[in-house]
Here is the input.
Amino acid sequence: MKKYFAEMIGTFTLVFFGVGSAVLAGGGIGVADAISITGISFAFGIAVVAMAYSIGQVSGAHLNPAVSMGALVAGRMSGADFIGYAISQTIGAIIAAGLILTMASNTVGGYDIAANGLGQNGWGEGYGGEFFMISAFIFEVVATAVFLVVILGVTEETPAAPIVAGLVIGLTLVMIHLVGITVTGTSVNPARSIGPALFVGGTAIGQLWLFIVAPLLGGAIGGMLHKARITAL
Here is the structure.
């Protein structure tokens, strides 16, 4: 249970500071401002770095069901652990999103979640760069697959892995967000998407399937690519 609790806390931290940077720091959902995009990207990346070096030895600091899917496909974890990790990660994300909404609502001017959102992922008219669903799906699959190739590669049992892994993974997530925020708000993480969507409802719930299916598919592809590389070697 210790590793499941660690995953819940780690994912909570990722969503609280990552999504929180978009909601509480004034960036807003789907913002196209380059400074805001950069700040949000680094908030997600730094949160991953912090958790990698603090709970990585307990649970591996997946913080993401798609990462756990990649680890499952690559043969690094069991099916039972995958389910435990995914549930724990999603609970952490939901708690974080709820606290962000509570904080945003408790201000002098209040908070209109219908107008401002809660850092939810999405696509189409009125969202970010107004990309169509196919663009959103392609980005989420490709970005998650690349993310997993990096994660699984850098966490292999080598002397340097514990030293550099967290930093490399965090910077990779920054790179992914820099490109993806205007496309989908960047998910690559079903738990991160589920948390805000549950509170926003409406279109966020209607589009949520993509941010569950595409990252999990991308994670599986990343796991297969890593496994194929190991086999080839």
In short: Residues 98 and 199 are 7 Å apart (CA to CA). The radius of gyration is 17 Å.
